[in-house]
Design a protein that fits this description.
By secondary structure, this protein is α/β, with parallel strands linked by helices. Helices cover 41% and strands 21% of the residues. Strand 7 (138-141) and strand 8 form a beta hairpin. The N and C termini lie far apart (43 Å).
Amino acid sequence: MSKILVVEDDRNLLDTIKYNLIKEGYEALAAVDGAEALEIARAQRPDLIILDIMLPKIDGFEVCRILRKEMTIPIIMLTARADETDRIMGLDTGADDYMTKPFSMRELLARIRALLRRAKTPETKVPEGQAILTIGDITIDLNRHRVSLKEQKLELTAKEYDLLVFLTQHVSYVFTREQLLEKVWGYDFAGDTRTVDVHIRWLRQKIEIDPANPQHLITVRGTGYKVEK
């Protein structure tokens, strides 16, 4: 049984999410502020966290930053605003996904299933000859989960890394946003494709010399994205 921590100071929403999680067969833990969330996460080591941004004591952004330094479990952030800044900040602090309130409980459960599936897929050791991928001055060491630009290590979030590896393993192939949600996020439903756009944007900030004129992570207008060497 997967253990899920719900961090939400709106008691009605907290109870609704917990009810639906339990109904789906999950063990549901609850916290109503950021400090309590950190305490429970460290003690219980949940399999996934649903994390509101606007929290008492410590906000969701800071909770996410702290947890990302300590554990690699999937995090879905909740925001009450459709403001892109919140989404970008949430993803940049290490969240795997975000949802804007009000949201469909059915979609939340689908995203939970997708993230848990990927988290539980065992990593396989990459054959030695295939362990290093390169794009220009960028080197990806698959066995060490390390990405460097001109030998300087880059700090990527888990999803940025997964996205970069997937595209690099398929050089010159163009993938739609929907295909990337399926292949990288594990979604088997119509997810929010803006999630892909935000990850691409932040990935460019880290791997491209001039993010406004990318040389490797290319947008194919009207279709999607590809990697070129």
